[in-house]
Amino acid sequence: MSYRGRFRVWRGDADGGALADFQVEVNEGEVVLDVLHRLQATQTPDLAVRWNCKAGKCGSCSAEINGRPRLLCMTRMSVFERDEVVTVTPMRSFPVIRDLVTDVSFNYSKAREIPSFTPPPGLAPGEYRMGQVDVERSQEFRKCIECFLCQDTCHVVRDHEENKRSFAGPRFLMRIAELEMHPLDVADRVQAAQDEHGLGLCNITKCCTDVCPEGIHITDNALIPMKERVADRRYDPLVWLGRTISRRRS
Amino acid sequence: MTETEQHDYDVLVIGAGGAGLRAAIEARERGLRTAIVCKSLFGKAHTVMAEGGCAAAMGNVNENDSWQVHFRDTMRGGKFLNSWRMAELHAKEAPDRVWELETYGALFDRTKDGRISQRHFGGHTYPRLAHVGDRTGLELLRTMQQRIVSLQQDDYAETGDYEARLRVFAECTVTELLTDPSTGSGQAGAIAGAFGYWRESGRHVVFSAPAVVLATGGIGKSFQVTSNSWEYTGDGHALALRAGANLIDMEFVQFHPTGMVWPPSVKGILVTEGVRGDGGVLKNSDGKRFMFDYIPDVFKGQYAQTEDEADRWYEDQENNRRTPDLLPRDEVARAINTEVKEGRGSPHGGVYLDIASRMPAEEIRRRLPSMYHQFKELADVDITAEPMEVGPTCHYVMGGIEVDPDTGQSRVPGLFAAGECAGGMHGSNRLGGNSLSDLLVFGRRAGLGAADYVVGLERRPAVREADVEVAAAMTLAPFDAHPAAAGGENPYTLHAELQRVMNDLVGIIRTESEMISALDRLGELRARLHDVVVEGHRQYNPGWHLALDLRNMLMVSEAVASSALLRTESRGGHTREDHPGLDPRWRHRVLVTHCVRAGADGGVVVPRIAVEPAERAPMRADLLALFDLTELEKYYTAPELAGHLDRVEAQHTEGGTA
Amino acid sequence: MTTTARGVDARGVNSPGRAAVGARTLRTDRWWLPPTATTIGLLIFLVYGGVRAFQQQYFFADERYLTPFYSPCVSLGCASEPGSAHFGMFIPDHPLIPYAALSLPFLLLFRLTCYYYRKAYYRSFVLAPAACAVPEPHATYTGETRFPLIMQNVHRYFFYVAVVISVINTYDAIVAFRHPTDGFVVGVGNLVLLGNVALLWCYTASCHSCRHVMGGRLTHFSKHPVRYWLWTKISALNARHQFFAWITLATLILTDLYVMLVARGTITDLRLIG
Q: What was the ipTM of the complex prediction?
C-alpha cells in the first residue's frame, strides 16, 4: 500500500537554489501535493508551496513535475513508477519567490490591460437576453481557473523574457476571445489583440492547450478564431470590399 | 528596526471571496478609497468551490416563485432561527444582485427565451438557482474580480494609476484589528485599522482605516474532514471577538451530506448537491434508496413517499412531490450517518450516490462536467459508469459575527461583516444556493454600510503605536520564545490534533460528555500553543503561517464547543444525541459568544471566550403571517403565536359565532 | 545542498530572477519523439511528391485513373496520355514545370499555411519549441508578426482554392467510372480515388478558416441557425484536423502509387463491375 517515494524538490529563492533529495512516505490514492504536505509536516516545515482548494478548482498549486507544468493537486502519484524519482520545481517562466512559489504578478498586470466587458448602453439589469448557444463559446473560456500554466509553458515568454512586455499570453488572449464572442459585448477588440496584446507572436504550437487542467481548447477555440478575426479585418480584401460597399450603401 | 509599512484607506475589506469583493465594489463605487486584503492570490478564494448555484427568486423557470416563497424556504431550512430581517432582505434583493452580475459580464446558463436558467436544489420550492454548469462560484468570483479590474481601469484612465482608489493586497494576512478607545461607544472603541504581514516576505504592514469589512469565510479547517481550504481558519470570527464584537449561533455547523470519502487524500472534497438535483439518488449497500425512511415529521407531506413519485417529479414538478434525496442538508447528513453506523455503508465508510444508472453518460458529462472531471482525476472513478461513494463533510458555519441586518455593522463601530463569517442569516441550517446570494446581498450592504459610516464620521480614529507593537510581538513569538532544543511544539502536530478533537467530539452527532472532554482538550492545546516553535525565517514560511492561524482556530473551536454544550436540543446543524428533539423553548434563544480579555491564566495568545444565552427578536407580524399557523406550531411556543393573524382571526370568528 | 551558479547563458528559463534550476529541461519522457517522427513523415511526403510531380509519366492509368498529383492536367505534355486533361492543355511542356502546375503550388501553400501543419513544422523543423517546456534554441523570436510568416494570415485564400481543387479531384474521381471503350466500369482504382477524395474533403472542410467562414465569425449563432448547424458539424471535423492532415498525406501517396503501378503495368487494376 504505502512506500517510500524518492523526490527532488527545488529549494531556494531569487538568489539561487538547488534540487534537494528527499525520501517520503507515499500512500495509495495520494497526489503530489499530499506528499509535499507530508514533507512539510515531517521534514521541512518551512517548504514554501502555494495551494488552496486541493481539488483542481482554484489553480493555486501550479508547478513543474518532471519538467512538465502541472497542478500539484491534480497529479496522482499512481502515474509514476514506485522507484521513479519525482522532480518538482517552481514554474520556470516567472520570477521565483521561494521554493515552489513564484511571483505571478505578470499575469495580474496583463489582466488589467484587457479592456473590460462593455455592455450595450441603455440595457438595464434584468433585461439581458442571450441564447444558450450564444454564450457557450465564452463559457468554455470562463472555465479558466487562472492557474497560469498556459502562461508558464508558452515559449513566447518562457524562452524570451523580452516578449513579456508585448505579449498578453494565452490566458489573456483567450480573455479577449471570450469578450469578443460575448453576445452582448459592444467593444471592438480585434485590432488591439494583434497590435497591443501580441496575438501575432503566437505560433499555435498548442502547448497552452496541452497543459490546461480544465481541458479548454485554448488554441482551436480561442486563439485561432481570434487570428481569423484579425485576418477578416486586416488581411482579407474580400471582407474589406464587402464592408466598404455596405458602408457606402448605408 | 526599520519603519513598518503603512497604508491609509477609507474602507479595508479583509477577504477576497465573493462577499469581500462585492463589498469592495460597493465602497469604491461610493467614491471611497478601498483596499482588499487576502491570504491567497487574488481570485483563488473559496467562493470558487461553490458549485450548484446562486438562489434568487427571479421566477424565470417557474413564475410562481417570489421573494415570499424564498423567504419561507429559507426560514424553514434554518428551522426558524434565522434573523428574519436578513432572510427578508436576502430574498427580496437576491434577484437584483444576480442581474447586476450580468452587467459585469457574467454568463449564466440560459433558458430557452434567453433569460437566466434556474435549477432545483434541496429545500427550495421552485427551481431557483442561477448557475453555470457546476462551477457557479467560479463564475461569481471571476465576474467580481473582473469588475474590480474594470473599476481599476476607470481609475487608471482618470489618474494614471490603477490602484488610485482600489487596491488588492494579495497574500497578506491580517492578524489583529486595531481600535481607538478614545472614539466609539464600546469599551474597546471604534475601529482604527488592522495589522498584518506579507506572506511572501514576512514583513509587517499596518493599515489605517476607519471601517473594516470582515469577509473571511468560515472555520472548516478546524475539522478533519472538511470541504474547506486551508484559508478557512475562522480569522474573521476571531478578529472580531478580539476587537470586542459578538458571535452568535456558533453551535450550528453544516455538514454537507455528500463529500468524497475515498481516496483518503481527497476525503471531504465536495460532491455538489446538483448531482441530486439533476437525478442522482442515494443508496445504501443493499441498493436501497434509504432517504424515504428519513423524512422528518416537520417535512411530512412535502416530499414524495414512493420511488415512482420521486422519479416522476424530475419530469413534472407541478403534480408530484420532490424526492427526499433533496431534503435540507442536515437531514440528509444525519441519515447517511445513521446508515453507515448501522452497517449499511459502502466499503470506505460512506453511502452510494448513483447517477450512472439514471441517465446516459453523455448527459452526465454535459450537466456535471466538473464532477465528472473531479472523480476521474482525483479518485479514478468514472461517475458515468459507477456510483460515487459519499459521506458527510464539514462545509459551512451558520454562526458568525453578530451584525445589524441592514448595514452589516457589528457592535464595534466601524467593524462590518458579510458572507459566511457573519451570523444570523441562515439560522440553524443553510439551504444550498443561499450562500452565493447571501454574499452578494450582504456583501453589497456591508460595503454600503461601511461607506455611509465613513462619510458620517466626524473624526477618524487613530492607530495607537503601542497596539502595533503588541501585535508585532505576537506574530514573532513563535520564532524566538522557545529554542527548538527545549522541545517546542510543532504547529502541524497541533493542527492535526485540533482537527481530530473537533471532528470526533464536536462533529455531526454531539453529546454532553464528549463536548466537555473536547473543551478540556482544547484547553490543553491552548496551553501548548504558547510553546509553538517554527523553523526557518519569515519569508514565505508555511509553518509560521499555520502557527499564527492556530490562534484563531482555537478561539473559534472553543466558541463552537461551548455553544454546542449549552444548547440542549437538536436543530439543523446541531444534533445532540442526549437531546434528540426540537425544543420550542430553545427557538427564541440565541447563544452569544464574546471575548473575555482579563483572566487569571493570561490568555494572551488565545483569549478566553464566554457564551451566554439571549433572546431573539420576534418576527415582524406581516412576515409571520406568511406561514400557516399549523406549520409555526411545530416550532413556536404557544404564547409566541398569540399575535399570529390566523389565530387572531380564528378567535374573532369564534367570538362572532359564540 | 549546493547552490547552482547561474549559467553564462542567462536567457529564457535562465533569466535573472527565475528559479536557478540549471537543467534546460527536466522532462524525463521521450519528448523528442513526436518532432522527430513529424520531420520524417513530412520529409517522406516532400521527397515522394517532388519526385512524382516532376516525373511527368505514369500519371494516367487504364485510360481513366488520373493521379491527384497531376490534377488538373493542364500542361501541353498531358497529350502523352489522351483523356487525362479534363480542362484543356495550355501550359508549356517543360521538365521543370509540373503538369499540374496550376494546382500543386496552391495545395502546397494550403498545407503550408494550415494551422495544424504550422504547429507541426514549427515544432519539428524550427524547434520553436520542439516540445512543451523544452527551451527553443533561438535567441530572439517574433512569431508570425513579420514577413514572411505574417503571410500565414492569408490561409483562407488557399482554402478557397483548395475547395476548387477538391471539386476538380471529385470530378476526376467520378469521370474515372467511365472507360472510353468499356463504358461504366468499377475497378479497385475507383474505390482508391473515391476514398482519397472523400478524405481530402474531410481535411479541407475541417480547416480552421473554413470553420471561421462558415459560422465561427458570427457572434449570435441563435440568429443564424443554418450557419450554426454548419459550424457545429465543421467543429466536430475540426477536432480531427490533425488526423486528416496526416491520413491524407498517406492516401495521396497510396493513391498516386496505385495509379503509377497500374500505369506502369506492374499491377493490374481489378475490375469489380464491367
A: 0.94
